């Protein structure tokens, strides 16, 4: 009954931790493609191929349902995967929709027409590839009207986080927030459109100010997954063991993961 969680590197661990806390009985298999991180500077075909390879590896672990805990993969690859590649007995879900539903105050599965919402000015911080895909704006348009979204590509932040350089990551966050606020001086809400970014969420909040509500994805995805599995229990796979897999160096990745999450994690080679 294992569920797979895929990310380009360490960021998806924020989602996995939230799922584990929300559903402690659920076996989870995590795969970080640390060998090829970051995805945010790659082209769409490269992201698609790498994501398909990662999902296939998780299927081998008995995970019929895989969460793409990588916004870049969700933005650049998920729709194509679902339309052209995914077998009928498997499911791959992204991380955008639960956050948009929270932002627009819609319940999971609410397919009513788009409507006016309270928040009108939204800042989106994401990787260059996610921003270029406009996937967030596309999904938002299905659910809300009259919302102004200003997107800021945050080059370098994922690299700094993966390298363990928190000082550089925080400095880059401040720079990217400053750049966005030149175009949207008074955002009402901010979306952290990369699962790496909760690791520096305090830096985003500090740069944005206390009046801006910052949305990150981990808890929202955990709640949505629980609801999905209640409705579709047939996609609980046959796997029974929780594991942490990486395409990179397991010792190095284990050290970085432990550093960021403040508890010990041991990775194995994928």
UniProtKB/TrEMBL annotation:
- Pathway(s) served: Cell wall biogenesis; peptidoglycan biosynthesis
Which residues are involved in binding substrate?
Answer: 7-8, 39-40, 71-72, 195-196
Under the heading InterPro entries, the entry gives: Asp/Glu/hydantoin_racemase, Asp/Glu_race, Asp/Glu_racemase_AS_1, Glu_race
Catalysed reaction, written as an equation = L-glutamate = D-glutamate
Q: Name one Pfam family in it.
A: Asp_Glu_race
As for family, the record states: Belongs to the aspartate/glutamate racemases family.
Q: What is this protein called?
A: Glutamate racemase
Name the source organism.
Answer: Paracoccus laeviglucosivorans
